[in-house]
Amino acid sequence: MTAPPLALSFGAPLGLLALLAIPLALAALYAARRRRTAYAVRFPAAGSLAIAAGAEAAWRKYLPAAFALAAIAALALALAKPQKTVAVPVEGASVVLVTDHSGSMSATDVEPDRLSAAQAAAETFLDKLPKQTRVGVVAYSDGPDGTLAPTTDRERIRTTIESQSASGATATGEALQVAIDTLAPDGTKAKSKASAIILLSDGKTTTGRDPVEVARVAKRLGIPVYTVALGTEDATIPNPISPLSPPIAVPPDPETLREIARVSGGRAFTSDDAGQLRSIYESLGSRLATKHEQREITAGFAGAGLVLLIAAGLLSLPRLGRLP
User: Fold this and answer.
1) Domain for residue 2, yes or no?
2) pTM exceeding 0.85
3) Residues 94 and 176 in one domain
C-alpha cells in the first residue's frame, strides 16, 4: 500500500528560522548567570543571607526560563503555519464488493474456509468505512445471483454478504459487468471519482465473458478494480461427484486477477490466510472512502505559546520564582 503522508507539515517553513532564538536566549541566560556568580564572589556572605531568607528548591528557579523557551518554540512553529494531515470522508464515494462464492470457496486452506474468511473480511471493510460511504454487493458463482445496489444501509449489505454459500462455477466477467452497470448505469463515466470495485475470487473463470475485457470497459468508465486472489496453490476440495474419487485441485488465479487490476487502473493483492485478508480489506476501506487533506493548526501553537509566556511571567514574580 502507498505510505500515508506526513502527519505534520508547514505552509511557511522559513518561519522555523525563529527557532534560532532559542540557542541565542540560552547563551544570554548563561552569560547572565556567569555575571551573577562573579558578583557573588565579591560578597561571600550572600550564601548565608540566602539560607537565612529560606532558599528555594534548585529546580524551581529554572522553571521560568524553561517555560519562556518553550513559548519561543511554540510561537516559532506558529510562524511556520503548521498543517496537520487528516483523513476525511470522500463525498459521494461508492464501492461495489464483487465476491466469488463458487464451489472452490469451500476449500479450507484459509481458515475456517475461504468463503467464511471472505465474509469476515467484508465485515472488517464495512467497519472501516465512513457511514456515508455507499456500498453495493455482487455475489456470483455460475452467474451474478446476489446483487445489492450501493446503499448506506449496513444491515442490508451484511445480510447480502452472509447469505452466500459455496457452490457452482465461476463467472467473474459477468459479475464484473453487473458491478460496472451498477456504478455507471447509463454507460458513461462514473460521476464519483471514488467509484471503485473490489473483486475477490479464488479461481479461474470457467463460464461467461472474459473478465479482462470487462476490465477494459471499467477503465474507460473511470472505475478501478481492486482484486484479491484468495487461497493457496495446493488447495483441494472433495470431489462433488463421488467422495471416493480423488479431490479436485482449486488453486487461485492471481495472474488473471493481476491483469484485471492492471487493465482497469486498480491494484492486485494476494492472500493465503484470514488475517492477511482482513488487513487487505481494512486498508482498502481507508484508501477508497477517505482522502487526506491539510488542515492548518497555527492557532493551537500560537495559543500554547501565549499560555507558556504567561506561565513564565507568573513564575518570574518574586514570590514564585525568577529567571536564572
Assistant:
1) no
2) no
3) yes
What is the SS3 string spanning the chain?
CCCCCCCEEECCHHHHHHHHHHHHHHHHHHHHHHHHHHHHHHCCCHHHHHHHHCCCCCCHHHHHHHHHHHHHHHHHHHHCCEEEEEEEECCCCEEEEEEECCHHHHCCCCCCCHHHHHHHHHHHHHHHCCCCCEEEEEEECCCEEEEEEEECCHHHHHHHHHCCCCCCCCCHHHHHHHHHHHHCCCCCCCCCCCCEEEEEECCCCCCCCCHHHHHHHHHHCCCCEEEEEECCCCCEECCCCCCCCCCEECCCCHHHHHHHHHHHCCCEEEECCHHHHHHHHHHHHHHHHEEEEEEECHHHHHHHHHHHHHHHHHHCCCCCCCCC
Question: Do 74 and 30 share a domain, yes or no?
Answer: yes
Asked whether residue 105 falls in the same domain as residue 218, the answer is yes
CATH of the domain at 256: 3.40.50.410
Do 174 and 55 lie in one domain? The reply is: no
Provide the angle, in degrees to the nearest 10, between the axes of the packed helices 154-162 and 114-128: 170
Question: How many structural domains is the chain composed of?
Answer: 2
Is residue 52's pLDDT more than 60?
A: no
Are 204 and 79 in a shared domain? no
Q: What is the pLDDT of residue 168?
A: 92
Structural domain of 220: 90-272
Q: What is the pLDDT of residue 136?
A: 95
Same domain, 109 and 188: yes
Q: Are residues 101 and 170 in the same domain?
A: yes
CB 43 within 8 A of CB 277: no
Looking at the fold, whether 63 and 121 belong to one and the same domain comes out as no
List, for residues 250-279, the tens digit of each pLDDT value.
999 999 999 999 999 999 999 988 898 988
